[in-house]
Specification:
By secondary structure, the chain is of the alpha/beta class. The protein is built from eleven helices and twelve strands. It has a six-stranded parallel beta sheet, with helices on both faces. The protein has a six-stranded mixed beta sheet with strand order 7-6-8-9-10-12, with helices on both faces.
């Protein structure tokens, strides 16, 4: 999820093709051309810790499967053009499969279709394309469930008190953000138009933007007492704004991601609870699926739920959870 605008290395078509040929993991496997089996990983960005962990999972699995891995990323959240270029160049370089976290769930679909038409297995990680079946398969958190878990937790923790909710969302039209938001309101037992939601702001999943969004919400509705955040960076930005107003003791923040920094923030009392997801597993399972396809020609299909766990040190009745010791041991595993 957590989501994320960071600079990355920009590589031209020729340079990326050269990189694809030169960057390998292991020395085994056979492709149709008699060389190494190749798999590509394209993430939203290459510096956000969430995607760093995803890359780590892909690297570990590629080494284990003795196949070659090449990676690329968008320059920033929402950068579809760089992802399209990377996908095209990976296909030209002869990959058997590509794992991709789409920056634009709809705009990436034509490029995915071209790759699949050439026999490349395309697996979406974390973020589904729209429609979901535009890719061969999806390995991801159930983002609706992730939202439901923190929504139900917040409902129980508020103990029937009147609530004024701020939602710190992602960006319009991004499937992960929509699903998490919808899950939260469902878990809390309200709908998106409920008057208890007094402020909604987009943050891009960025900490600085999360702080600004929370400052705007507090100006609009000073009595906010519950904050839903799309991810932990946005949640930590919100905490900074809330603390500046001296209200950190009476405003509850819930979030999604379960990164090590985020879980530590739960342990420190900055965030009440988070839904932990597992990007390393997403990427590792994706690489293994491509390796299996290279061996037997069978393409994986459909949706694989890679799991989600509610993490909190203040459990509530009816909300199954693990503590931060578990969360820190498993953060983004």
């Amino acid at each position: 999820m957590s989501r994320r605008a960071r600079p990355v290395l920009v590589i031209g078509a020729a340079g990326l093709a050269l990189s694809l040929a030169a960057c390998g993991s292991g020395s085994g496997g056979s492709s149709q051309s008699g060389g190494k089996v190749k798999v590509g990983l394209i993430t939203k960005t290459d510096t956000n810790p969430y995607f760093v962990k995803m890359k780590e999972g892909a690297e570990q699995a590629a080494k284990s499967e003795n196949i070659e891995l090449t990676t690329a990323a968008g320059k920033f959240d929402g950068d579809n053009a760089s992802q399209v270029t990377a996908l095209e160049n990976m296909v030209a370089a002869g990959v058997k499969g590509v794992l991709i976290t789409p920056n634009d769930s709809k705009a990436i679909v034509p490029a995915i279709a071209k790759a699949r038409a050439k026999g490349v297995l395309v697996i979406a990680l974390d973020t589904p394309p729209e429609p979901q079946d535009a890719a061969d398969a999806l390995f991801a958190t159930d983002n609706v469930k992730a939202g439901e878990l923190i929504g139900a937790y917040a409902k129980a923790a508020m103990s029937g008190k009147p609530v004024k909710i701020a939602t710190l969302d992602l960006a319009p039209g991004v499937s992960v953000g929509v699903q998490r938001h919808e899950g939260f309101v469902k878990g809390f037992g309200i709908d998106a138009s409920d008057p208890s939601i007094v402020c909604s702001q987009d943050t891009g999943g960025d900490q600085a933007k999360g702080q600004t969004a929370m400052e705007n919400c507090l100006q609009k509705a000073p009595d906010i007492n519950l904050v839903y955040a799309i991810n932990e960076p946005a949640a930590l930005g919100a905490f900074t704004a809330i603390k500046a107003k001296g209200r950190e003791k009476d405003v509850m923040i819930v979030a999604i991601d379960g990164g090590c920094t985020g879980v530590q923030a739960v342990k420190d009392g900055k965030i009440a609870a988070t839904s932990q997801q597992y990007p390393l597993k997403m990427a590792a399972d994706g690489v293994k699926a491509v390796a299996a396809f290279a061996k037997d020609g069978k393409k994986t299909s459909g949706y694989t739920d890679t799991g989600v766990t509610l993490i909190t040190d203040k459990p509530q009745a009816g909300a199954d959870a693990k503590d931060t010791a578990f969360g820190l041991e498993n953060c983004w595993g």
